[in-house]
Amino acid sequence: MLPNQSLVRPRTVFYILNRITANLAPNSPQDPDCIIIDVLDIQLINIYNAIHPNIPNSIPTLQRDILPSTLKNRSILLGDFNTHHPWWDPLQNQSSNASILIDITEKHSLSLLNTPGEGTFYRPNMITPSVLDLTFATQGIVNKIEDWQTLPDLGSDHFGVLFTVTSNQSIHPTVQRFNTKNIKWDKFTKGLQNAFINFPYSRESLYTTQDLEQLGELFTNTIVEIANQTIPKSKVSTNSKPWWNEDLKALRKEMQRINRLAKASGYTLFQKELKDTRNQYFNLVKSTKTKHWNKFLEKEDTQSIFKAMSYTKGKYSQLVPSLYNSETKELESTFQDKCNIFRRALFPPPPQSEGPNLDHLSTDSSYLNSSRVKWDWPSLTQEEVKRACTSKIKGKTPGPDLITQDIIFQAYLAVPYIFYTVYSILINQGHHPKIWKQATGFILKKPKKPNDSLPKAYRVISLLNCLGKVSERILAQRLSFLAETTSLLHNSQIGSRLYKSAIDAALVLQNEVEVNKANKLKTSALFLDIKGAFDHVAKNRLLQVLVQLELPICLILWVKSFVEDRIISLSFNNETEAFQPLNTGIPQGSPISPILFLIYIRDLFKSQNIKPLSYMDDISLIAASKSFKTNIKILEREVTKLVDLGTEYCISFDIDKTELIHFSTSKKDSIPITLPDRTVLAPKRLIRWLGIYFDSSLKFKEHRSIRTSEGKQMLGRLNRLTTVTRGLSPFAIRQLYLACVTSVTDYGSELW
């Protein structure tokens, strides 16, 4: 965790164990040499007292008047103070600015934790170590601190300082996931088979909503229980060093022994032996790390290759600081207050609309099957369940129940008929159990967001229970098939469809421009973005669309159950809240959400007077005529119709993301457009759409330049993994080059 500023190089930092909750304190100054954090119920203040070389007319840190006027009752002040005083260093002359630090300690009644005279800084040219690194504590916590000591063998001229603090709060335990690597599944298979011997449900029977809920709970809890009994959990070690060996252990003990002898003599004896042993130890550490890394790079399995590539990318993970509360106009620092801010900002309530009356829908089997014929919607087959349970999924992170796709795969092999029975009942009778509507929402910071205190600088990654994703995947595949073989979606909707990609959408746009140019027509395009996308789907409106399309009743009932009564627990700063109700549209991270969203917006594309093009929530309106002035009139008319339709269908557009381009080689063609909200939007010469940079002349010069630059960056990372004598094998280098370099540089190359 770094100081609350980014203008100059910081000289103070905190490294915090993942399991400990910590936040940048609201009173942390905007100074590179001081950082204040709140850890559990303790406030830590880290100071580097010196003139900063990058700040004009800089003065020592303690003279900048940046410390809080009052300290919390449980505060610890520590750092490199670069100050001598007989209180802690009786062998050195008192520094001229020591009185400033003494005044601070007296003002806040701070107690010194250092052992007077015990050095914290030493170089070979010094006769004895000096005391520069100090630790002070307020009266409310000084009695909770014990075992203060120095660690001289860290490889720095500054010794480490170690002490123990007893806190009133507990550290949140790390959630241990199932470790499915290299295990034998015999016990899991037998346990599951025995648990489901007397399964009380059958596919031929009809059940009430309560019965279906109990079915979902029984099925899920049984798998979780058997997994807990037979599958080991991953062991997390905070001090894991795969390169450590017995030689290093023995040499470290010898170095510590000589250091104790030198310290006992007041550092008048054993100086040469200590220096030689220390150099030998750290040289051995360096060579051992190098050997371990080279041995790791010699592996040729795919997992190790891409893991090595990930190490070349700089990772910077900072905890969520205090967040700005737009209601109180203050910064909130507690975990629950931050959760409330995130919920308001990242999960705004979706639009409200009148929904269809579904009370008349019967659960009678003949009624459930009444609309199957129109849409070719047969009953669930065993092959569909097998494909959904045994397919390899890219994402391996489990949801709240910790059941992964690997466990589902083995569970299906153990009891395939039980899986077929459970999913047949739930899908054919249109129900999604509440136990599958739980999610864990991990808060991640968006890149290139300067203000970390704003909730909009973060995004949510929702992890859903994988057992629920099986039924979602089955229905998504069915709807995707209908999208390609029927009129379920508009022809202009390209995103999230089989055998169609963003490149296809870009090629359609390019083709329109070139065909119009061949016909001596001028082309203009207006790009719009649907606001909120999945989160802003009005549930009742979605159900209304499904009813109007006369989709199978069991599907409509399933979607209604799927979008209702969802709960989520937010997780960040190594802490997870309890489950809370979530009022949003359709959930992020679900396999069926993209196709449901496309069905939701399908009625936007009714106009016959313009060429629409859609890729998920990115929409473009393409107009062609003899002049750009006429194009603007067409676009203004059509965008007004589109916005009106959006209002009718509970769909809104993000005006700030709307862009206009005239495809022309002349710089004089700059006629603006007036949007329905009276915003005047000037055309741009370069627009980024679907990751491709379209210039007005369709030369793609800028796009090629940007992709080449990104490819060079990837190539530079790849070069770090190999040399002439060591590193990755040619096979691994080629695999990484095709996957990481070629894919970056060639993206969009089909357009030119």
Key terms for this structure?
single chain, 752 residues, alpha+beta, 6-stranded mixed β-sheet, 5-stranded mixed β-sheet, 19 helices
Lateral arrangement of strands in the main beta sheet = 1-2-3-4-6-5
Please give the radius of gyration in angstroms: 32 Å
Report strand %. 5-15%
End-to-end Cα distance, whole Å, is: 45 Å
Mean pLDDT score: 89
Helicity, in percent? 25-40%
Would you identify the regions where 5 or more consecutive residues have pLDDT less than 50?
A: none
Largest sheet: 6 strands, mixed
Q: Tell me the structural class.
A: alpha+beta
Count every beta strand, where a strand is a DSSP E run of 2 or more residues.
Answer: 23
Q: What characteristic shape results from the CA principal axes?
A: globular
The number of helices is 19
